[in-house]
Write the structure tokens for this entry.
Amino acid sequence: MPALSRPQLVAYALAAVVVVVLGVRFMQGQARTGGAMDAGSGAAGAATGAPGGAREGGTGGDAGAGGEGGDNDRAPGTVEIEQRPPESALVHVAGAVHEPGVYRLRAGERVKDALERAGGPRNGADLNAVNLAAKVADGQQVVVPRRGAAGAVAATGTGSPAGAGGGAAQPPVSLNSATAEQLDTLDGVGPATAQKILQWRQQNGGFRSIDDLAEVPGIGPKRLAALRPRVQL
């Protein structure tokens, strides 16, 4: 191979430099073109994804609306407490009152409230013979006697002549309104037992049945059977 002269070497070197420069420019142009295409694809993808995103957002809104509607429904396992109306008691008010009869009172009301419902006591009513502070009970009878009525009956029974068939029968004694003195007039009931009856009545809000006398200390089955025709509620 013939030796190259110095001018030829310079020309070859310049040609190689030109080739390298052109190659670098070509590669840079390819890189810019690819980046622009990628940017365009990304923009198109964003434009395409926007409606989808909007639909998803709308779906979320619908779910939120459904959730709000679901709040109005009762949650599973919820226990509702039903409020019961206050208990009431039917009370028979009799004796020296303006309007005797059966009245419905609220549980916890007192005998004085029952008398007010019955129009109040009449003139001559013996309110000292009635426990006005006692609580009423369902089925209770409140009898308001007249002043001196019990004494008159007792006098009639004591003063009846012998052989006249006995004295007039005494009226039953009300377990829910009688005083200790009235209870003491019952056969087999002394002052101590009368106080026990009053104490039981106060602690339990009154007698609901004559059989409740069996719960009073000192009153057994025999005494209860003897007292049954002599007492009332």
User: Anything to note?
Assistant: Residues 88-160+170-232 form a domain with the DNA polymerase; domain 1 fold (CATH 1.10.150.320). Confidence is low (pLDDT under 50) at residues 39-70, 150-168. The longest strand covers residues 88-95.
